[in-house]
Design a protein that fits this description.
This protein is about 85% helix and about 0% strand. It is an all-alpha fold. The radius of gyration is 21 Å and the shape is globular.
């Protein structure tokens, strides 16, 4: 539950930007902060978030096994990686923002504001990386509440600054980007101070931040496949976004609004994935095999019930939800068409999220990553570029339900096979 609520408040950063920009600046500005720009941001942040799962798994396993020295080395290695990654990718994003946006067929009238938003966002990327890594470390030792509290504080900061920098000081897209950057900086400071002074069983010392080779290799062994998986997701979504861009600004605005509504499902689903990964990782380290199997089954049941519930709720309130973001009737109607294709298939992804999280926590990352990359991402790209290259909007976005079905089937088969192998070997 704290993870679900934490995801909710983390999403509020961009959702509040979208609501205020869409209502008070216009649909063009909404498309600038959430369309192609949003996909680029998701690609980079998604990669690092995937890599940070390596730290979550390693630290949760050491925590379950009671290995304090290894926990300390993992902590400082993970923080060093976040600092270096945030700096390098932040600079790259600032430099290459115009080229990336043009590769995605972003309409020329949106380029200037989209570039501005991406560059300001990437200038604070190091804060995002620090917070995500710090929060992942806290969750690995069972503390999911304090990351939630910090996100609540930062969401309030973001909302206040949005209102100030968009309504009072009319900075438009620039104001939204600055508000998000400052809020993210606050979250990074809060989680860092917590790890330095207020976390039992580990202590972050700034002077000891460095990359321990053995720990870095362990983190990357698990984290890099997850990071590349996230990149593949983002690339496939970018290709979908580029196809949607061809339908015009109204469709782009509808897709931006839908992505914010759609996140209600993803914040719940990903919370179950993180939960089962931490739970299985700790019990794997402690050698409690029965709890691994039972916990995964219970988590899957909860994820499926949640997915079906969210689908029903979103489709029942679709017109109201799109109206929160934009007043244009045409945009709302397009958004409803999108929801009616995608939302009924949410339950399929619950299998992928829970089973891949459990497998990752046990160190089985390569095959599960390949299943996701090929069965979902590559298949989605083939669908959009070949099958639905000149199709209708519905024909383009139906790639999501189709690829989720393929991925869920393959992941379920592999999970059952792998668990039998693991339990036979123990």
């Amino acid at each position: 539950i704290p993870l679900i609520l934490g995801n909710l408040f983390q999403q509020l950063y961009n959702t509040v930007d979208s609501v205020i920009v869409g209502q008070f600046v216009g649909k063009e500005a909404l498309s600038s902060v959430g369309g192609s720009a949003g996909q680029i941001i998701s690609l980079v942040v998604g990669f690092f978030t995937g890599v940070s799962t390596g730290a979550t798994v390693i630290i949760s396993q050491y925590f379950g096994a009671g290995k304090k020295e290894e926990i300390e080395e993992s902590l400082h290695t993970a923080y060093a990686f976040a600092l270096v990654g945030g700096l390098v990718l932040g600079i790259a994003g600032i430099v290459f923002a115009p080229q990336m946006l043009r590769w995605m067929n972003t309409p020329e009238e949106l380029i200037a504001e989209s570039v501005l938003y991406v560059r300001v966002y990437f200038s604070g990327l190091i804060f995002i990386f620090i917070y995500n890594m710090g929060a992942a470390i806290l969750r690995a030792v069972g503390d999911s509440k304090r990351p939630l509290y910090y996100l609540i504080v930062c969401s309030v900061v973001n909302i206040i600054l949005d209102l100030l920098l968009i309504l009072v000081i009319p900075l438009g897209v620039l104001g939204a980007a600055i508000a998000t950057l400052i809020a993210q900086a606050v979250s990074a400071v809060l989680v860092t101070v917590t790890l330095m002074y207020r976390t039992e069983g580990m202590k972050l010392c700034l002077s000891q931040i460095r990359m321990y080779k053995r720990m870095l290799q362990s983190i990357l062994k698990i984290g890099l496949p997850a990071g590349f998986e996230a990149i593949m997701y983002s690339i496939s979504n970018i290709i979908v976004q580029a196809s949607i861009n061809n339908f015009g600004v109204d469709t782009m605005a509808a897709w931006t609004a839908y992505s914010k509504i759609d996140f209600i499902f993803w914040m719940i689903n990903s919370a179950f994935g993180i939960s089962v990964m931490t739970f299985v990782g700790q019990n794997y380290g402690a050698g409690k095999w029965d709890r691994i199997r039972r916990g995964t089954k219970i988590c899957l049941g909860m994820a499926l019930i949640s997915a079906v519930s969210v689908s029903i709720i979103l489709m029942s309130a679709e017109r109201f939800l799109f109206g929160i973001f934009v007043n244009d009737v045409g945009v709302v109607e397009i958004g409803i068409r999108m929801m009616n294709v995608i939302a009924p298939a949410y339950l399929l992804f619950a299998f992928i999220e829970v089973f891949s999280g459990a497998l990752r926590a046990q160190g089985a990352v390569v095959v599960s990553t390949l299943i996701t990359m090929v069965g979902i991402c590559v298949l989605r790209m083939i669908w959009v570029t070949l099958v639905a290259a000149h199709g209708t909007l519905e024909q383009v976005i139906i790639c999501y339900p189709i690829t989720w079905a393929a991925g869920a089937l393959a992941m379920s088969i592999y999970y059952i096979y792998k668990q039998r192998k693991i339990f036979q070997a123990r």
